[in-house]
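Per your request, structure below.
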């Protein structure tokens, strides 16, 4: 089986989407891009994460043509592929429906620089305008809203994070949901104090290379 390591990662992190409280049921999706082959591996559509096997993970090109697998790929494949086509710094994408991020997205709010960890995603986290799920329009507005960022909220939908690895993208997703919860609580009782842009720039530089990268696994 090709891409065994990547397939196993998607299976493992799919389960973590649920156990970490980032989604419910079969909501959300994950993918990994292999730059050498130009192919992405993406979670299947509508399959329970705890019943997903490595062979259920779909291998496809960036135009949505299935190369390996007999499962239907996630309906959001365009929202993954658009980053692999346009962002050389992103090789993995996590999309989920965590409660606090989704709550803010339903208000059309982003997440401002209220906490230093926001710098993991960039200067702030924008909220992309609404577009129907699974469409090319949603992929495009998501890409544009995440320029110079590693996370974005999707209006009336959820959130998406991207990074150089699936482990890094998932880490950002967990932290952004935590920060969304902090911001939700802060605005409920007052006006959060925001960090200045120059401090956020400094923090972004300090976070570069902060996370140790996992060793590549043999296929």
């Amino acid at each position: 089986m090709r891409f065994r390591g990547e397939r196993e990662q998607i299976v493992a992190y799919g389960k973590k989407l649920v156990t970490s409280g980032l989604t419910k049921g079969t909501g959300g999706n994950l993918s990994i891009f292999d730059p050498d082959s130009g192919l992405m591996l993406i979670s299947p559509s509508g399959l329970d994460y705890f019943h997903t096997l490595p062979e259920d993970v779909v291998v496809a090109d960036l135009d949505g043509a299935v190369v390996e697998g007999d499962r239907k790929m996630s309906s959001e494949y365009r929202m993954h592929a658009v980053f692999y086509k346009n962002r050389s710094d992103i090789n993995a994408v996590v999309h989920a429906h965590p409660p606090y991020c989704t709550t803010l997205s339903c208000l059309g709010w982003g997440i401002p620089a209220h906490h230093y960890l926001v710098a993991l995603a960039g200067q702030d986290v924008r909220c992309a305008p609404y577009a129907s799920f699974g469409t090319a329009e949603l992929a495009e507005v998501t890409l544009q809203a995440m320029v110079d960022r590693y996370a974005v909220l999707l209006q009336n939908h959820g959130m998406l994070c991207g990074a150089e690895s699936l482990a890094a993208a998932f880490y950002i997703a967990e932290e952004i949901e935590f920060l969304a919860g902090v911001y939700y609580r802060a605005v409920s009782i007052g006006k959060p104090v925001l960090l200045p842009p120059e401090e956020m720039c400094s923090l972004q530089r300090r976070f570069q290379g902060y996370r140790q990268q996992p060793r590549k696994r043999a296929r």
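The beta strands are 29-34, 39-42, 58-61, 66-68, 92-96, 127-128, 151-154, 158-163.

Regards,
D.
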